[in-house]
Amino acid sequence: MPAEPALTADTGVTPSDAAAPEPAEFRKAMAEFATGVTVVTALDGGEPVGFACQSFASVSLEPPLILFCADKRGRSWPRIRAAGRFCVNVLGEEQRDLCERFGSSRGRKFEELDWEVSEWGTPTLPEVLLAVHAVVHDVHDAGDHDVVIGRVLEVERHEVRDGAWRRPMVFFRSRFGVGEPDAPIAPDPWGLGDRWGWG
Fold it and tell me: What is the pLDDT of residues 89-106, one digit of tens each?
């Protein structure tokens, strides 16, 4: 096994010498990075499954690739992986109800929800800001999560409603929204952030 490289040529400090942050400390630090909120959905054996996910990003324009991170302990991710194709539903700021549905294993998820099946066989949630339909292109092991690369099949944008531009749901410092210090802290387990993906 090759030796660990030095962090800097000047100090000679290696990764094994560095003190890694504790999980709680790391979670609190990452809360300083504002993210959007998505719900990743799929059909497995005709049954809809999904979970709330903050870790979502574009990867490549040619070919069009996206990524999301899924907790290996989650119940939905193995079923989404088995389905082979999925939809990333990007939530608007007014869609906290959807976040609450899918942010916990105790959420109602698809119960009494007016969702639709796309032409790609993926569940699309009602009135989301953006729906990205994709197939599982690659999966990379990354600690307690998998990094999932998806090849995009189609995007559906719904950024305007009733003639007005919509704003995305933003999660920052365990609260929904930025610049709202009096906003209520998201209830557990949503406030834990890294719990999302268990669904």
Answer: 999 999 988 988 898 767
pTM: 0.79
Q: Which residues contact 151 (CB under 8 A, 6 or more apart)?
A: 63, 64, 65, 134, 135, 137
What is the separation of C-alpha 31 from the centre of its chain, rounded to a whole number of angstroms?
14
The SS3 assignment for 187 reads coil
CATH of domain 45-192: 2.30.110.10
The CA radius of gyration of the chain, in Å to the nearest whole number, is: 18
More confident residue, 30 or 125: 125
Q: Is 169 exposed, middle or buried (0-12, 13-18, 19+ CB in 10 A)?
A: buried
